[in-house]
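Extended Data, panel c. Modelled sequence:
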Amino acid sequence: MAELCRTDSSLAALDEEVLWEMLEDHRCRIVRSICPSRLTPYLRQAKVLGQLDEEEVLHGPRFTNTAMRVGHLLDLLKTRGKNGALALLESLKFHNPDVYTLVTGLQPAVDFSSFSGLMETSKLTECLAGAISSLQEELSQEKGQKEALLQQSRRLQERLEQAEARERSLRQLEAEHGRMQREVSARFHEVLKLKDEMLGLSLHYSNALQEKELATTRCRSLQEEVAGDRGLPSPVQLLKLPPLPGIPLREADPPPPPGPCPRVACTGVAVDRLACELYLVKQELQREKMSSSCERESRERSLKMASGLEPEDEELSRLKEENERLRSLTFSLAEKDILEQNLDEALETRQELVDRIHSLRERAVAAERQRKQYWEEKEQTLLQFQKTQADCEIYKERLGALQSHVVELQKERDQAYSARDGAQVEISQSLTEKDALRRKVFELTDQVCRLRQQLQAKLLPPGVSAAS
């Protein structure tokens, strides 16, 4: 094929069948590569394509894609013969040089002296200028579309970044909310444990008080029984009696330290203290018993001394024995120190328990305060979450409105397309009617010509032929 077409002038020298055979061999590549809207202006200026033909190629409703339009264009140009093939090759030289090289095997060198002469130079220049202006308009439109798409892409990217930032903030808020809930639950369990401990301590304290009351009641009943059996005065009466000379009374317990009265006490300490008090009361009873016996003996001695029955030595020995007996009945200093030490230890243990109770109360108050603080933070977080959720709903509504607006625009576009298709259908129908009328006119013209020939043949004399 390239050997047949060495120069542009050789293309014009080729036959119509050879040219269209070259084009038909590469019909598939031509149909896929070229755009009919770029070739029709040149073909129209070359007078191988009419305005109605161009309208039918570009906007015909029968052709749903570019390949079908290009195929119909090739069919129309094939009916134009050799001029259609040359005009198509020259248009490919300008707009699709690679296809031109593929078909002809020549380089697309623009030389005004090598054109086929189908159109004048001025018209060719006008056509080229129009093609260049149309290409520039298409280029500017594509640039505008590119800028619009870039701006839309930037806006969508910004919205995407904002949505991602909002999503990260929401995730952080959810994590913080979960952490606060866990801390609140942990503090709540601690408060429950402290309440259980306080309840247990209060139960121990109430049990200790009951045991103390029972021990006190039992001690009093025992003292009353002892006093009733032996004819001794009761402990209340003993407390009202004056103390014996030489016998020191037990000092009263020191008053408790000032401060809030504790609710909890140790059971063992209360029992030890009650035992100590019971022991002291028993010692008091023994001392009172000894003092009463000493009084009786002193009375007897006074009576005997008055009667003069006993000598002074016996009296002196008797007094010594009584003194030894009283000394044996008194508290030893060691026992007194031990009892005081036990009392001090019990008081210290009691004070430690009181301090522990105060510390537990302070911890419970601090935990309650912290729980209230966490609850307020939780409420604030929930409010912020609800606000963010409301913003999301608003954005969703806006997006839905935008989508509905886009749907309406698409409907309007479809209506415009349908109206355009209807107009194209009407145009195609009018073109079809025009072609039918044109064929009918041609038929009528042929019929008129035949009738004229018949009429002329009838009007001529019989001996004269029509050729003369």
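Confidence is low (pLDDT under 50) at residues 1-7, 112-116, 238-269. This feature is highlighted in the accompanying rendering.
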